Amino acid sequence: MTKTTTRSRFSTRRRIGSEHMPDSVVSSNTVASPQPTADAVSSSTGTDHETSQVALSSKRKRSLPGPVKSSLSIEKQKRPTAEECKFIINALGVIHPDVVEENNKRREGFIDRKKKKQTTNKNWTPVTDAVISTMLSQNTTAANQNRAFAGLKEAFPGGWEDVATAHTSSIEDAIRVAGLAKIRAERMQSMLQTVKQERGEANFEYLQNFTSTDAIQKELSRFKGMGPKTISCVCLFALGIPEFPVDTHVLRISQKLGWVSASTSREAAYSYLNDCVPEEHKLDLHCLLVTHGKWCYNCAANGKPQFKPKEKWSCPLIGMKSGKMDNKDDKQVNVKKEEVRH
Fold first, then answer.
1. Do residues 333 and 91 touch, judged by C-beta distance below 8 A?
2. 220-231: per-residue pLDDT in tens?
3. What's the pTM value of the predicted model, to 2 decimals?
4. Which long-range contacts (CB under 8 A, 24 or more apart) does 292-296 make?
């Protein structure tokens, strides 16, 4: 009788002690403890075994990982938020006021264009101008793009009908400053000739009659040289459709701000950001990020801006990777007047 009581106390002490130790410690203690004698094995009760199983089961439950975050909670963490977009537009608008002014003119132009939609002036082709100009912007500087487009207009005063029927070499000469002249000329002329055969006119003004962005994207994507970014630019700048094109500057700054990872491709970033950025902010945010990426020491590639301001300003985007905004008051954006570019 005495032996059974002593062994029961020993067994109970071991169980109580193990409840206050991590599983790994309990496991190691169990292995290191001396093997019970045959008498002890024969005298141990079923109750001891059941109690040990319950204690072990309890520890296992406590060690299970916590609940996985729901898709709803993940959705709430998407960035940029509307508040971030507004803050950046206000902050960068102080540094680059000319960008905001230009966008306001664009908005007025979209309104005027709707009034002139039925015009019979075949040389007034804003959509076609945007399509060709955007094609010329690929893999070149804005200055060379503008010079090439101006050269094209000067060489063919009769408009896009003349470009469609001209000798390809003459088109190459007009746009040579932008580079890749032969490829650009062939693609440009092929597009104009195709729509001429299909619709009777060598222009893309018919896109104004399309009722969905998907339809416009599908129509333009059938032409060589019209990738997602180019089509997105045409929608935004030519048709006034809320789109958020992602060029090299927008991608780089988006990665710096933690909106997308460093390994995210431009196409994947476009798909994600176009969904996140509120429609009313897309035009201003895109244009301001592109401009800022060319002028800011903090946001330019390798810290070397394409255009150097008079002084290094305090970039309002520094510290925003976690979503923190230091100056929520629009009037207190930390930018000195003499640092603003002119």
1. yes
2. 999 999 999 999
3. 0.72
4. 292/92, 292/95, 292/96, 292/249, 292/253, 292/317, 293/248, 293/249, 293/250, 293/252, 293/253, 294/249, 295/95, 295/96, 295/341
Short-list 277, 229, 272, CA closest to 88: 277
Q: Is 71's pLDDT higher than 50?
A: no
C-alpha pair distances (Å), 176 with each of 160, 161, 166, 276: 18, 20, 16, 38
Nearest to 36 by CA among 18, 48, 51: 48
Token pair in block for residue 329 = 């008051």
Q: Which of 196, 218, 229, 324 is catalytic?
A: 229
> In Å, what is the CA distance from 185 to each residue of 148, 178, 260?
11, 11, 35
CA distance 82 to 258: 15
Question: Is 229 a catalytic site residue?
Answer: yes
Determine contact, residues 55/17, Cβ cutoff 8 Å: no
d(CA 3, CA 40): 9
Read off the amino acid at residue 72.
L
Tokens of 279: 């429609």
